[in-house]
Amino acid sequence: MTNTIISSASKEVIIGFDVPFVIIGERINPTGRKILAEEMSRGDFSRVERDALAQVEAGAHMLDVNAGIPLADEPAILAQTIKLVQSITDVPLSIDSSIVAALEAGLAVYQGKALVNSVTGEEERLEQVLPLIKKYGAAVIAISNDETGISEDPDVRFAIAKKIVERAADYGIPSCDVVVDPLVMPLGAVNLAGIQAMHVIRRLREELKVNTSCGASNISFGLPARGGINAAFLNMAMAAGMTSAITNPCHDETIRAVMGGDAMLGHDPHCLRWLKKYREAPAAGSEEAAARDRRDSRRRRG
């Protein structure tokens, strides 16, 4: 089955059909975060450090890093942010920018095999980004829209994704290094957004046999109690074949949805990961605690 391998200098993450779902932490992104944008633009990365460590502690397997600040030197800030994040955590990164020069600046300093976020089906974008992916040996997120915009027809989105995969192959980039984003629309604005997404995800898995990702919180934009919608979406998307998502791991509903989904799909044998995270320690003085202490004592003597 298809495996997309992303790495830092010391750690490897596999995005694939038969392995646990990959959570890509979304918090290092100044879009919509005025204070973070102001701090990053003046060289204060203390909040970036806190967000990076908190997301990894919460369960993120990778981190998305974005430095899109209006009127700022995005290539320089993105490169600086990537070096900082890689100095304090070992998880692989997704380098996120709409500016090609910023992507190259980030790739030039990155240690390991990065995931680049992103390329679309627009000809100009394909011709600018795909050579960078090949040059640096990276993987790339392919957004299923092109010059015509975002189609509400899921089969059109699939066709655009297929085009990007084929164009990547022309540059010597294997399909396993193309992770497709089926474009999740807000459910409050597009009533069939969930159904459309599931349709594309299934076709991408079954026909193109590529891994998939998305901005999971897009589905709940504009709605109250967003965590519940996001969790429901993630479970259904995982069942349809989605293998990763850019989301907020600091929301417990998200972590529970993903880990529960992994257990249901057989990607957590004997529910060991679930048990390790959620099983309560026995109360001090209880029979279970005493039995545990006896077992530990026997192991030490042995």
Structural category is alpha/beta
Work out the helicity level. 40-55%
Unreliable stretches covering 5 or more consecutive residues: none
Spatial strand arrangement across the major sheet: 8-7-6-5-4-3-9
Describe this structure in words.
This protein is globular. 43% of the residues are buried. 47% of the residues lie in helices and 15% in strands. Helix 6 (154-170) runs parallel beside helix 7 (193-208), helix 7 runs parallel beside helix 8 (226-240) and helix 8 (226-240) runs parallel beside helix 9 (252-264). Strands 8-7-6-5-4-3-9 form a seven-stranded parallel sheet. It is α/β, with parallel strands linked by helices and 302 residues long. Strand 7, helix 6 (154-170) and strand 8 form a beta-alpha-beta unit.
Using brief descriptors, characterize the structure shown.
seven-stranded parallel sheet; 302 residues; globular; alpha/beta
Briefly characterize the structure.
This protein has 302 residues and is α/β, with parallel strands linked by helices. The protein has helices at 34-41, 46-58, 74-88, 100-109, 123-136, 154-170, 193-208, 226-240, 252-264, 272-278, 287-301; strands at residues 3-7, 12-16, 22-28, 62-66, 93-96, 115-119, 139-143, 178-181, 244-247.
